[in-house]
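Field reference: sequence -> structure
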Amino acid sequence: MRTRLGRAWGSGLSALVVAAGVLVAPGAVAQEDATQTVAAIPAGYYDGTAGLSGEALKSELNDIISGNTRLSYSQVWTALMVTDQDPANSNNVILLYGGQSRAKSLNGGDVGDWNREHVWAQSHGNFGTSAGPGTDLHHLRPEDVQVNGIRGNKDFDNGGSAVSGAPGSLTDSNSFEPRDAVKGDVARMILYMAVRYEGEEGFVDLETNDTVTNGSVPFHGRISVLLDWNNEDPVSAFEANRNDVIYEDYQHNRNPFIDHPEWADAIWG
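Structure field:
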């Protein structure tokens, strides 16, 4: 397994933060850059991937991004305050499904707080919150406590009724649809998890499928919808910056589908 380290992107990160969007007032929904953003990919990081597709590409990417630094679940609190910081207000974080800007100090489990949302639901493989998939920043995001509860462990799909507290998001009995501005983000986080965790290092083998009734099995869906979302919602500056920060300062690995969204179709399309 390979881990590639490097720190040469300070000015690039600053530029990405500035471009990531501006909020007009506390509680407003983030306006994300809809233009495809080129992340600061370290030279040589994806050596060995040229010409690959399908399972061969998936296996090579697993080799590249595995062996990363693991955080404790308590360390995730502090990390999210950096990775998801509001570009317009350094005292706040941006909530994933709702898009609101909320004070970093309001982290916890009470109404009005934000907590640590596992985009790949913990119960889909029962990996808990121990170091590894349960603390991987590439799929952990700040979210309102009540909205997090509404999402629960549902798979991702289109349709449903409006979600209170998360403008633009929808849900029904067995699926959750995030707002348009982060559909691609959600897809790329799920695909990352399916590549990073392949039953090695004592971790469960996580895989995508095309259903929305996965429950406690280590699968997440719906892959056909996730591929559409990946194509419809390009990588934003906020998302690219987040990938760089996780690589530089925390886990020292990257989400390949932020760097190369086209690899989603190359593997699963």
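Note: The chain has a mean pLDDT of 89.
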